[in-house]
Amino acid sequence: MIAQQLINGVMLGSIYVLVGVSFTLAIGILNFLNFSIPGLFMIGGMVSWVLLTQGWHWAAAIGAALAAAALVSLAVEQLSYRRTRGADPEVPLVSSLGFLVLLENLVLVGVGSDQQTFPSLLGDFNFRIGGLVIGAAQAISLVLTFALVVGLSFVLGRTNLGRQIRAIAESRSTAVLLGVDVGRLVPKIFVLTALFTALGGVMFALSYLQVSPFMGEGVGFKGVAAMIIGGMGSVWGAVIGGLIIGLIEVGSIWAFGADTVNIAVYGSLLLLLILRPHGLFGKPAIREKL
Amino acid sequence: MSGYQTGVLIILCFNIMAAYAVYLPLVAGQLNLGIAGFMAIGAYTAAYLTNEMGWSLVSAIPAGGLAAGGLALLVAVPILRTHGIYLALATFALGQVISAVFLNLEVVGAAAGYPVSTYASPLAVFSVTAAIVLFVVGLSQTRFTLYLTAIKNDRLVADLLGLKVWGLQVAAFTLGAAIAGIGGGLYAHHFSFIEAQHFSVQLSIYTVLYVLLGGTQTVWGPLVGALFFSLVPELLRAGEAWRYVIFAALIVAFMAVRPQGLVTSTALRGIGRLFGRKPAAPGAQP
Fold this sequence. Notes:
By secondary structure, chain A is mostly helical. Chain A has helices spanning 2-30, 37-53, 58-81, 90-111, 136-158, 160-170, 172-177, 182-208, 215-230, 235-256, 261-275, and strands spanning 116-117, 126-129, 132-135, 210-211. In chain A, helix 9 (215-230) crosses helix 10 (235-256).
């Protein structure tokens, strides 16, 4: 029984991993707490649902959903990030929150607030290993998540693009001096985070067969928690953080019931922020003088 | 005044109280994303005191404010060790935890909600709101608000100039939470029913959004933001979702073009001049 709960927790956690990685990329590279990410997650799920019900092929529907999220993310880059640099630090955060509210309510106007049933693309297919049940969709999303994260850390660590990205993360002005074209690189980072997030939304829809205009909030905010637990800016930290959040969530449902999830998840987040704000695996920030 | 108009004004009042609760710490550069949690503390404390302990409104609502302020003071000590984004996220997590705790607390009805028997009249809501606005406006004329602005502009310099940065931040955070608690207590007694789901993360987020839309440079910004958020949808009479679409689009546009918000100190001076007040520049008189 406990083994099954562990598996469920890891499966759920893999969704948080993708969202947490997106948050950690935005904050680690651009120092931007991008609260439009839950909105992009929802775009991934909702757009693919709408197109599937219109009779599109699943690959085309998912591709279009990812493209839609990437476009929205470029708009966020233009309006929430690029234009608010140099303003008060809370301005980009608030602007991206504005985007979240905007996206949710636009979709609400379009399709209504009901929870919709996502068509089951993989049928009712399960793996059964020694009494443990693993849903096919969940297994696929777990594998895909890890493939993506490994791919991402390869790109960040080994390629020229990754070197440029790490250079901006280290010091933006130095990167500019060294010839990094920041104006062209930053939109790429936004597209990258959008693809990760929207794919998370699609996989959430495939695994749990439900979409709604507000599906991004619960998952997205737990993605923030995953990012902090792992240490802001650390990709593998976000992976561990996402899995921990998934396990805490499933564990608290199993032990105390569904109403206690938020106490457990956000309580541990609060505790961590107080005791160890730089996360479990992050490096402590240079202490301010105050 | 028709019932509809009273209803709109009541909502406006609650939004104004929430706005000033967010505004006070924000003057010092602290973004409180968990204001709904402090409202919930005030609402449930005051409701419990009138329902079960037989307290009167006059003592229960300030007690709700004190409880919210007390909790803020308690968590301020560890939370304010963190800065910037960490602080915003810590208040966010705190708001979620508080709302979830009330959702599970059987003494106050848990998920079924909590009916409140004592009733606060619209007049009570209006006068408390007016008192809070006067209080914050009065505070803005004192050095306290000036100090907070200094901290926001440069913590290090403020500290070097001898300000007790940490103490001032704790004070702003606690005062804001106490205002939220008073607002919550009134909310419970005016609507005679509270449920934990009302004090959600959306409530906190919307409050922050309209405060910043109004602008935090002057004390009038939050008032204008709350007015805008509460009244424009009533004038538009569009659907509930459209009002948020328009509101959110405005937020995004404002943050991109005019991040200081609707009301700025320069704009206020301009209005002052319009009404014939001489600009108070020395040597301007012949």
